[in-house]
Amino acid sequence: MSTIGWRDRLQGQMDPELAEEIDVFENQVELRKDGRVDERVFAETRLRRGVYGQRYDNGQRHDGVEHRRLEFPSGDLTKGPETLWDAPGMLRIKVPWGGLTPLQIDVLAELAEEYSDHVLHVTTRQDIQLHYVHIEDMPTVMRRLAAVGMTTREACGNGVRNLTACPLSGVCRTEAFDVTPHSEALFRFLLGHPDCQDFGRKFKIAFSGCADEACGLVMMHDLGAIARVDAVDGEPVQSFDIYVGGGLGTTPHQAKLLAGRVPLGELLPTVQAVSRVFARLGEKQNRNRARIKFLVSQVGIEEFGRLVREEREILPYDPRWTAHLEDGLPPEDPARALDTGTEDAAADPAFIAWRANNVYLQRQPGYAVVTIPLPLGDISSGQARLLADVARRFVGDTVRTTVEQNIVFRWVRLEDLRDLHAALAEIGMADPYAETIVDVTSCPGTDTCKLGISASRGLAGELRERLAAKSGELDEAVKGLRIKVSGCFNSCGQHHAADIGFFGNSRKSGGRVVPHFQVVLGGEWQHNAGSYGLAVGAIPSKRIPEVVDRITNQFVADRLPGESFLDWSGRTGRKGLAAIIEDLKQIPEYEDDPTLFSDWGNPREFSIGDIGVGECAGEVISSTDLELSFAESIAFEAQVALEDGDITRADDRAYRSMITAARALVRTELPDVPEQDDVIVREFDARFVETKRFQDRFAHGKFARPLLERHASGRPVATEEHARTLVEEAQLFIDAAHACQIRMAGATSATQ
């Protein structure tokens, strides 16, 4: 089992077990190339080593930046080749708790230049991704990473993903204590651990130093630990509150308290016990139900806690459980910590603006944390090399990535701020918009992700550019808002936890497909992602900037003194919020505004060909379109009922909306289908679920399940949590029905 640790990363040593595993992977690559390993087996093997297939658009990312141009076999270039033998893929590199050194940044820059597209991408889990890497080059890249203490092991696949933590850990003014040593110890302990090799799905862990701030976003994780300090017999005692069962994706769940005041020495064995319970009882067959949030929801948090305690009692002792409490991490640059200074008061306007947004005063007097924004999470290899040199000059090995896709420098002396700003400005990295509304977060979307529906990076880039251009005019209450964009329902951009979130979907109009984004309002970033927003309507992608303008302008006009966006959106209500953007949902005829029929940064039209021209020079609106529109109205009623606390009505409206959407599809083949729910569900199941027409190859039937299970139960949900889940699932069901209709129309057009 690997023992790679922080000292290994500092000293540039390659962990022997990781080296051996890379050798094994290289052999598997050769065997697969010779056809002696099944593709499905090899897929799981490579995923556990951080190797992904990716989507292609012939070298053109939708952010408008042209990268290495690639030629592929004939076929749909937006989906790319079926295997990694036809074209390069993506390599994800773990960066536990975000910790980086200048040496590691140098090596990453070299690898991006030699094997990738000269771009390092920081993810919303503090990872680094390299795109367009050839499969044959992966072992070499892995070895060069391992030489500086970095690993891709279990960065993907059904295991423990990168372990995240607050980038301010150890220097935060409000934290209980520094969670970094515990994060590092748990990362080392779980990496390759046999108890974590039989999960049905991925497992994400986060640490937070306090409960009130955003920090590690514990509440949206499979498992999270929040630091606390309590007085016991007059002495401060450190411990963790451990939460389980959180997650975003198609059905977001808030994590639940598993155990409070867990002693530091019990952290690792408790997580090990959770892992064993999840591996033993978690779903294995249906991937859509295989995350731990579904297991916790199924058995209940009390029973799950009992199972974990029972498992903990039988665990064989492991000395690594407490080794880090005696060893820990070396102090960050202790010599530097002895020096203090005073800040240079003389400054130009650019420096003042940068300092206002990008500088956080540490709890250690005389020092600050500086955030370096990376637009869309990207940094070029050239900039990375220069940034590593700047880090050596000002902060040494105290660099970290963040879940908002940025980089932070810690332990910056206050008297060095002006010089640091000048150094960053010289390399084009002194953007003064860190952690403001301009600092938009986005997943890769249709640029490289096979699941992408809409161009999340293209939209995020457009929003960032527009908001930056008018940043001086923005109200102070608006400047602090968070915007997060996902290219599909899976919430890799964390749209559920944003003030203003968007996730990609599509709609049909006149035989053409129109890229859309669902608008999600009222999520809470603070309190470790304390609550999630709900969708208020799907809007054509090209109109989303206007959505942002309308929502923020209305917020400024209506807010009470000191009122937050979260409170304002709750007071305004779903009906009121939807009314602000209602007219933007309407899709004009193609001739009136063809721009709506293409996505941001991609000139190609989302067209499947005309499916019918109406009489009298007017379009005939199909009954399917009308029924799906009606289903959306019913789903919105469910959201309003949920907001009003009417659980019974929320359940009924969510269920009726899915029945209506299912009936719309069934009627395309059985126009006279009876109105009985039993008949509709039976025909929908037989014609669309069993035939797999209701899902694409990535959905695996997940959107049909809520209707089938709710109908089979014959009774309404019992709790607000279950009602909220059903309401979310109903909207996704309708989105899937729209997509199914589009695919059917495309198939019909192709045969004519």
Describe how the helices and strands are arranged.
Layout: H1 6-11, H2 16-33, H3 39-47, E1 51-52, E2 89-93, E3 99-100, H4 102-115, E4 119-122, E5 128-133, H5 138-146, E6 164-165, H6 180-190, E7 205-208, E8 223-232, E9 235-244, E10 256-263, H7 267-281, H8 292-299, H9 301-313, H10 320-326, H11 334-337, H12 349-358, E11 359-361, E12 367-372, E13 378-380, H13 381-394, E14 399-401, E15 407-413, H14 417-426, E16 441-442, H15 456-469, H16 476-479, E17 483-486, E18 500-509, E19 512-521, H17 526-529, E20 534-540, H18 544-558, H19 565-581, E21 598-599, E22 602-605, H20 623-643, H21 647-666, H22 677-689, H23 705-713, H24 720-751
Parallel strand pairs: 6-7, 7-8, 16-17, 17-18
Antiparallel strand pairs: 1-2, 2-5, 3-14, 4-5, 4-13, 8-9, 9-10, 11-12, 12-15, 14-15, 18-19, 19-20, 21-22
Helix pairs in contact: 2-3, 2-5, 4-13, 6-10, 7-9, 8-9, 18-19, 19-20, 20-21, 20-24, 21-22, 21-24
